[in-house]
Amino acid sequence: MLDTEHCWHAICNRDAAQDGAFVFAVHSTGIYCRPSCPARRPKRDNVSFYADPGSAAKAGFRPCKRCSPQGQSPAEQLDALVIAACQRLADSEQHLTLAQLSAQIGLSASHLARAFKLRTGMTPHAWSAAYRQQQLEQHLPHAHSVLDAALTAGYTSTRDLYQHASALSPAQRRKQAAGEHLRYTIAPCPLGQILLASSAGGVCAVLLADEPATLQAELQQRFAAAVIQRDDLGLGEWLGQLLAQICEPQRAAHLPLDMRGTVFQQQVWRALQQIPTGQTRSYAELAAQLDSHPRAVARACASNPLGLLIPCHRVIASNGSLGGYRWGLERKAALLKREAAP
């Protein structure tokens, strides 16, 4: 037995989560729709509810051509097409242009580009590059040479591997960063325990936890083959700046950063650095600024290894709630409270 009030509430909110749970029919038009149908909302008195499309059809109603309640919704169809496009990009031995990909998928190039970026946060070209990079990372540790790994990952040569600046060269990554020297220090702070790690390029990690052992384990996992050495004295000045920022947010630490991430992640992280102390932005606002998707921005924030220095705690949900924070919502709330204080 359907709860008609619950169903009507879902229609008013165009709740896609209720698609498949029921359909509603409009007597004045003779059409039945899914709850998320984008068409103009009908009058409540003209609406009846059915458990499934078959029941509505038996009652004499026709399926809506706009929301396709008897099959996949237009959004679900686009989801499937984007998944198919990703598979084509992954399987292709040659670079596919947007025109070539759209012809294979059966969508216009502009339509595919919009749908693809909305669902993945990237253009097809960027997704393809990121996929090849991921394949390269998987093959590098076991390959006989960088060239072998590059060819297996779909590159035609090693030239492309060196066209973009990276914290580690492909040769270093093939050895899992073996030989790289990192220094670190750990200290108590108002947020628990804080770890600061530095490479030759600058600060490469700022991590938070309740116990020093947790921080050491995470650092070791991130840089499994690097030579890691504790250096409380050598990093004392930088750590002091970081602790001062926590206690007095207006005294922001200005330290050299060794940001290690994808092109998109670094783009998001640079945008985070532009958010002034005491202010926040929503995931949706950042996504609009970067021409991306809120979920893609949220994933980049969650991947941030440089807490405080790249202030991902200043990004909140559109409804004003805290959203997420990889080091715990209590810490996020404490940071925002300190920064909002006069």
Automatic annotation (TrEMBL):
Residues 79-158 form the HTH araC/xylS-type domain. Pfam families: Ada_Zn_binding, DNA_binding_1, HTH_18. It comes from the Bacteria. Keywords: Activator, DNA damage, DNA repair, DNA-binding, Methyltransferase, Transcription, Transcription regulation, Transferase. GO terms for molecular function: DNA binding; methyltransferase activity. Transmembrane segments: none annotated. One of its GO terms (biological process) is methylation. Its cofactor is Zn(2+). SMART domains: HTH_ARAC. It is an enzyme of class 2 (transferase). It catalyses: a 6-O-methyl-2'-deoxyguanosine in DNA + L-cysteinyl-[protein] = S-methyl-L-cysteinyl-[protein] + a 2'-deoxyguanosine in DNA; a 4-O-methyl-thymidine in DNA + L-cysteinyl-[protein] = a thymidine in DNA + S-methyl-L-cysteinyl-[protein]. Its EC number is 2.1.1.-. NCBIfam families: ogt (TIGR00589), PRK15435.1 (NF011964). PANTHER family: BIFUNCTIONAL TRANSCRIPTIONAL ACTIVATOR_DNA REPAIR ENZYME ADA (PTHR10815:SF14), METHYLATED-DNA--PROTEIN-CYSTEINE METHYLTRANSFERASE (PTHR10815). This is Bifunctional DNA-binding transcriptional regulator/O6-methylguanine-DNA methyltransferase Ada. It comes from Pseudomonas spirodelae.
